Automatic annotation (TrEMBL):
Single Gene Ontology BP annotation: methylation
E.C. designation(s): 2.1.1.222, 2.1.1.64
Native source species: Lutibacter litoralis
Top-level enzyme category: transferase
PANTHER family documented for this protein: METHYLTRANSFERASE TYPE 11, TRANS-ACONITATE 2-METHYLTRANSFERASE-RELATED
Protein name as catalogued: Class I SAM-dependent methyltransferase
Superkingdom of the organism of origin: Bacteria
Organism ancestry: Bacteria, Pseudomonadati, Bacteroidota, Flavobacteriia, Flavobacteriales
Residue ranges of coiled coil: none
Keyword check for Methyltransferase: yes
Keyword set, alphabetical order: Methyltransferase, Transferase
SUPFAM superfamilies: S-adenosyl-L-methionine-dependent methyltransferases (SSF53335)
Gene Ontology MF, one: 2-polyprenyl-6-hydroxyphenol methylase activity
Length: 286
């Protein structure tokens, strides 16, 4: 992506390294890029943290426990969403499937599921959840899938993590059936909580998040592959969870009341602007 870029913010990696990374604004796509972007083994190092909740089923701190409670509710809402799609065979690929909770609930509801998860420990947990009666393949990376075609592909807070973004989107297109549906959930750097917390906004999560999207960016990126955004849906819980982490980064304290206030204000403002903390994009092939 060789579009014109300009400095936007500098952020600290609060999870692993305490290193500073820059965010560059891509003028053409209306999105941010993390700079520099670690690659290969260096990038893997930034995921080696006990605080990286999506790779474990840990429930140690209050924040972790809150995350798990909301996750259980969100799983049912996600299942309800994909069950609303008219599909031919109910085939599902969940990319970045983590410890496999979404795969398991979909499989138990009649979906033929496969997953992609690069983290070895998370992958083992996922396999233990979905391989009880028959084998549901869980791959290390998307390039291991070649001839398969899916009715639905889901990426729950995954697209912001992938290197080689445009190539990756092309691969997603190739894995979808002609009338298939792509479900992409990503943080929105134009939300009120992002603008309020600025460099402390937890959803910047540098350098694990390589890209930071606006609604315009998602629409343009997928339009390049002849796909179109049909619906945008809010993830209203995200503003509260992200604000709680952001308060900790900003003040070194988990100020629940302040985080709740900012999260609520973000959702109220988004009722008019539609700029929620995170958005789900329902993207149709063709």
């Amino acid at each position: 992506m060789n579009s014109k870029k300009r400095p936007y913010l500098s952020c600290i990696d609060y999870t692993v390294s305490n290193k500073k990374f820059d965010l560059l604004y891509n003028v053409e796509y209306d999105m941010l890029e993390t700079f520099p972007q670690p690659e290969g083994d260096e990038l893997d190092m930034y995921y080696e943290s006990l605080d990286y909740i999506s790779h474990t089923d840990a429930k140690k701190s209050i924040v972790d426990k809150l995350y798990q409670i909301v996750k259980r509710y969100a799983l049912n809402k996600k299942l309800e969403l994909i069950n609303s799609f008219k599909t031919s065979e109910k085939t599902l690929l969940d990319i970045g499937c983590g410890t496999g909770d979404f795969l398991a609930i979909c499989k138990n509801n009649g979906w033929k599921v496969e997953g992609v998860e690069p983290n070895k420990n998370a992958r083992k947990l996922a396999e233990s959840k979905v391989n009880k009666n028959d084998v549901a393949a869980i791959f290390t990376n998307i390039n291991e899938l070649e001839s398969e075609k899916f009715d639905v592909i889901t990426l729950w807070h995954v697209l912001e993590h992938v290197p080689n973004l445009e190539t990756y989107i092309s691969k997603l297109k190739s894995l979808l059936k002609p009338k298939g549906v792509l479900v992409v959930a990503v943080p929105n750097f134009k939300s009120y909580d992002a603008l309020y917390y600025k460099q402390f906004w937890a959803a910047f999560d540098v350098p694990r998040h390589l890209w930071h999207f606006s609604k315009t960016a998602i629409q343009k990126l997928f339009k390049n592959e002849h796909m179109h955004v049909e619906i945008m849906l809010p993830m209203k819980f995200d503003s509260f969870y992200v604000s709680l982490l952001s308060e900790k980064y900003k003040t070194s304290n988990s100020n629940f009341l302040k985080a709740f206030y900012v999260g609520l204000k973000s959702n109220l403002k988004a009722m008019a602007s539609k700029e929620y903390s995170s958005l789900i994009y329902i993207i149709k092939n063709g």
